[in-house]
Amino acid sequence: MTSPIEKTIAVNQDLQAEKKRRAAEQRAAFAARGTLVVNIVSSPGAGKTSLLEATAKHWGTSRRLAVLVGDIATERDADRLRPFTPVVQLTTGGACHLELSLIQQGLGQLPADDYQFLFIENIGNLVCPASHDLAEHVRVALLSTTEGDDKPGKYPKMFRTSQALVISKLDLLPHVPFSVEAASDDARQIQPELAIFSLCSLTGAGIAQWCDYLDAMREQLLAGQSSMQEIPPH
Ligand SMILES: Nc1nc2c(ncn2[C@@H]2O[C@H](COP(=O)(O)OP(=O)(O)OP(=O)(O)O)[C@@H](O)[C@H]2O)c(=O)[nH]1
Ligand SMILES: [Mg+2]
Question: What is the CATH number of domain 4-224?
Fold first, then answer.
């Protein structure tokens, strides 16, 4: 006879398997439409919205992009992004991460479904969002120079499950004790394959290289390269 604990474990495993299946299905649907989905994660205030503003400004009308932006409360980030791109604000009312079901609701509120790039700005938090697959093709961890270069090792799951690390607020380097090399080495100890960029969203320094990376990732997606499917386990 199975014990209640065994039953609970079995139900949990079924739920996890179902979530995984749904995320894989949605990821394939995005790929079939030619949409590269980029999930940006960071602590609060690291510069996610600023990076999206800078990205949208850099590309202007040359790319079709849209943003689903998550927050616990307010439409403030959507208000900031609206002059540059179609955007839907997702508010969780308290939850510390976005889930795929909310992403799918947000998709229905976007004015089109043929974007080249769909950005998801996750809730500011280096812990919970690491455990939720939002059907993204690329997970980007953003770390700002004001947070300290020791953070990758302290929040390993976030960096292990990401494909790219963006070090932001580069303009503040002269004023803060932060080593780009130390942060990069720490992150690569956890995830050796990480692509790493340093930039400043306010001046635009490094934004062109970041945008080139996104273009290259979309090219890989369109070419159906298997590496795109290799999302590290969440
Ligand atoms: N000096 C400097 N400030 C920046 C840079 N990027 C963002 N900021 C500032 O950092 C603050 C937070 O930036 P946001 O873009 O709102 O950060 P966020 O990660 O979207 O914040 P949440 O959505 O609340 O988690 C703002 O005052 C920005 O102007 C940068 O490259 N350099
Ligand atoms: Mg924001």
Answer: 3.40.50.300
